[in-house]
Design goal:
6-stranded mixed β-sheet; 12 helices; about 450 residues; 8 strands
Length: about 450
């Protein structure tokens, strides 16, 4: 008791101190409470992130070109597995680049006359090159009415023009001239066998048309109508063409050559018209003026053309298909230009699928639509000097499109045409030319776009 009396005050102060310490430990101040709450929330968020990573659905890298759903990843990847995935993606990217290079090699073209494009003002030998292109183009297109070996009719089509009255008259005159040389004369200058020779001439001329028709059918692979290939008017004018004229004529010719090559491939195994799948090429129309989506084609006057035109050629551009344009959804963009065409031809009815398939075999041609199909009376055709053989024949009109990659085309496009095309593309927001995302070929989703429709 004496102890409590003596030290009671100290004991009271000690209890107060202990109570203060306990209160500080178990009843934190407001600032300490907020700090503790923040730390709790941080740890809760971290736990949520870790749980999300742990339970997230994962898939293997998608390297399929078929658009299939990616395969599920059943185990968490090790570093070795991750490296394999990176390698697979890199290999796929390299393969895609190789495909692009292969397509470019298949599609690349050269001008009919080296140096004729783009041939801007001030370049040396400009007029000589423009006129040289004009003359070479005329021979290639049979613009003078003949069929030189360098013409489309001869190479690659191995075709022949249908028999006409002028050809028949020329051959009749030749035969008569040759046979008249058989007339013999006596010493007095009187003809000895003129009646006999004239009878031979009459006999030869009577069956001449049938012989010529048969010879054409047996020595050529198809008939080509004289106006089958549309000829650029600027290439037959008396004045030298401009570089813009040359460009559009050349683009049309490139497409015409591709179409002719496809038909020649379809007829590759034929010996003549009688057994050929494609028997008669009636008309090929190419809309080169639609290049770049131009309404009227043709760039502005080259004297007013800017010299710093940006005409991108990007095989990795993001391309969105537009199915309001065509069945393929393709329209001109920074990867390729689209050139529409129409072909009218008479075909062995049993070979129609194979003929249409030949258009897209190793060529960037697509047949979009068969606009008409008409059965041909072979007997009536024979009376019109066409021998098609015994197989049933139909006349087809098809619409399609030819693609020309900018990777090679860009170096031939005159600045005036580049400016016109780029102006249209900017107004219509046609494509993303800068951000790699892959090319759109019509079915290929792996390289950032679609591929398959060629």
């Amino acid at each position: 008791m004496d102890f409590i009396k003596k030290f009671g005050l100290y004991i009271v102060f000690g209890l107060i101190a202990i109570a203060s310490i306990v209160a500080g430990l178990f009843y934190p101040l407001p600032g300490m409470l907020a700090s503790l709450q923040g730390e709790v929330e941080t740890r809760a968020n971290l736990d949520s992130d870790l749980s999300s990573l742990l339970n997230k659905s994962r898939s293997l890298p998608d390297i399929s070109i078929d658009g299939d759903e990616p395969e599920e990843l059943t185990v968490f990847p090790t570093e070795a597995n991750y490296n394999l995935g990176v390698e697979a993606v890199e290999n796929f990217s390299q393969s895609a680049d190789q495909v692009i290079s292969l397509i470019d090699a298949i599609n690349a073209k050269r001008p009919l006359v080296d140096g004729a494009l783009p041939l801007e003002l001030g370049e040396p030998n400009r007029i000589v090159l423009l006129q040289g292109f004009q003359r070479t183009y005329q021979r290639r297109m049979n613009a003078n009415g003949d069929t030189p070996e360098s013409s489309l009719v001869a190479n690659p089509l191995q075709g022949t023009f249908p028999l006409d009255s002028d050809e028949l008259d020329r051959e009749a005159e030749r035969i008569e001239s040759v046979l008249r040389q058989r007339i013999q004369f006596d010493a007095a200058g009187q003809a000895i066998n003129e009646d006999e020779v004239m009878a031979q001439i009459d006999e030869q001329l009577e069956a001449l048309a049938d012989r010529l028709v048969a010879r054409k059918a047996q020595t050529a692979k198809l008939y080509v109508s004289p106006d089958a290939f549309e000829v650029s008017q600027s290439m037959t004018a008396d004045t030298a063409p401009t570089n813009i004229d040359v460009f559009y004529a050349q683009v049309a010719l490139w497409a015409q050559e591709e179409i002719a090559g496809a038909i020649a491939d379809a007829n590759a195994d034929a010996t003549n018209i009688l057994d050929a799948p494609v028997k008669h090429l009636l008309r090929v129309e190419v809309d080169a003026n639609a290049l770049g989506g131009l309404e009227s084609g043709r760039g502005s006057n080259q004297r007013n053309t800017p010299t710093d035109v940006d005409y991108p050629a990007d095989p990795a551009a993001t391309i969105e298909p537009d199915y309001t344009v065509s069945l393929t959804g393709r329209k001109s963009n920074s990867f390729y230009e689209v050139v529409p065409f129409t072909v009218r031809m008479r075909v062995d009815a049993t070979e129609v699928p194979a003929v249409l398939a030949a258009f897209s075999d190793n060529r960037l041609l697509s047949v979009l639509n068969i606009t008409s199909m008409e059965v041909i009376d072979n007997g009536l055709a024979k009376s019109q000097s066409f021998l098609y053989g015994d197989a049933p024949v139909v006349e087809l009109e098809v619409e399609g499109e030819a693609l020309m990659l900018r990777s090679w085309l860009a170096s031939y496009v005159p600045k005036a045409v580049q400016a016109a095309i780029m102006n249209v593309e900017e107004e219509s927001d046609r494509g993303n030319f800068g951000f790699p995302g892959g090319a759109n070929f019509g079915g290929f989703e792996g390289y950032g776009g679609e591929f398959g429709g060629f």
